[in-house]
Amino acid sequence: MEIDDEPVMKKPRTEGPQTESNVPKPEIEPESDNSPPQSDKKGVKPPTHRLCPYLDTINRQYLDFDFEKLCSVSLTRINVYACLVCGKYFQGRGTNTHAYTHSVAEGHHVFLNLHTLKFYCLPDNYEIIDSSLDDIKYLLNPTFTEEHISTLDNSTKMSRAIDGSLYMPGIVGLNNIKANDYCNVVLQALSRVVPLRNYFLREENYSKIRRPPGDSSYLLVQRYGELMRKLWNPRNFKAHVSPHEMLQAVVLWSKKRFQITQQGDPIDFLSWFLNALHRALNGNKKKNSSIIYQSFLGNMKIYTRKIPPTELDDRQKRMLLATPEYQEIITESPFLYLTCDLPPPPLFIDEFRENIIPQVNLYQLLTKFNGQTEKEYKTYKENFLKKFEITRLPPYLILYIKRFTKNTFYVEKNPTIVNFPVRNVDFGEFLTPEIRAKHKHTVYDLVANIVHDGEPGKGTYRVHILQKSTGKWYEMQDLHVTDILPQMITLTEAYIQIYELRVEK
User: Fold this and answer.
1) Angle at 134 between CA 129 and CA 135, to 5 degrees
2) What HEC string does 298-351 produce?
3) C-alpha span between 426 and 441 (Å, rounded)
4) 128: which of 113, 119, 154, 294 fits an S-S bond (Cβ 3.0–4.6 Å)?
5) Is-contact 4 157, C-beta < 8 A?
6) What does pTM read for this prediction?
7) Which ranges of 141-289 would DSSP assign to H, the alpha helix?
8) Residue % of the chain over a pLDDT of 70
9) DSSP class of residue 373?
């Protein structure tokens, strides 16, 4: 197993009393950014940077660029600098700015502009150019080449964090700020969707997308791209990432529908998030209009017919069934995920079987979509019978196993265990012969499995993900990352699953 272990280069501190011989000499005369650069005899302006004697005061342990880029004093987003000694953010670098005051008061001298990625020494106010700072620049803004992305699913190279711990890029924990584990599991699961991941790892793929004036939802795309690049960063200082900026964007653009301080439902968040990203990428109803639809969009036919009221006699029912209102209606419907209904758990269990948890096979749940099985749906006034027939399978299929049902008084959870294979799930069995003939491949493999533990409305969420390069499965619950046997995954109360279409090369 290879280890990507790059030693951090630091400038040596000059030891002993500083005499004229051992004081680091600047490349040019000291010059502040505010003063006009002096031209030499040939009219060429000299550079405005020099060597800095304070580089060894930088404390990489304190550097964390996962939080909102706000000045810690004025809370402004404009012209913010990070102090590389204590990790705090301050505005400005001119005289009387918060960064300048902090530098003088605390004796912290090295700052990084979070927008331009330039380093400065305060209060002297000169730019620092030094290759030993490139690791900090990469931490703030990781970049990926096409060649690097193409090797992500084949590489087994481990990376070393600054504290010496080893981690695999992409297999890193997400910080739980208070009650945002329902968001974390969805973000981790989506990071296993290869086309989506590859698209967001290259910022140029979406940097030129323009939104209408006054519409700032494009920032949601930017934040998600930043989070994806941090998750797969091979040169991270820590073996975990905080989704703080991403979740702040979620709270803002969902109009506080999703919070980081109270538990939510992952399927609600997943549905909203995919549609919000699709719209922000200027997606429309066409299947190839955005990377979201290209990855997840499938199609089905829904056959609906109305059921006559039960209190009528046979003659009245026959008359009603002959009317246009009671004829079968066929509608075409796109989908981003399929809802699988669990059979109700048994109401009464005898004394010898009281500890047996009900189980059901995944294939039994999927018969709902074979175009033949009818299911009754009740509304306040009317009842309907519906049949579902899949007409197009997407490259990535999301299954939502409906565990929670609301009745008049409370939300109830169905604890039924779903038995599912981790590999070789053939969805072609549920297609009609005509539709199956249009699909070259119909076999899927599981890549992510979201699980709910505990009571409805409370409890916690965790996710199982597949690392393709090693074939290993990992369980993630916020910051906790452990490997797990595939056989153990099938024993959990699965809630949301993502399957990848297997395409033979």
Assistant:
1) 150
2) EEEEEEEEEECCCCCCHHHHHHHHCCHHHCCEEEEEEECCEEEECCCCCCCCCC
3) 9
4) 119
5) yes
6) 0.85
7) 146-150, 181-190, 194-201, 218-231, 244-253, 266-280
8) 88
9) -
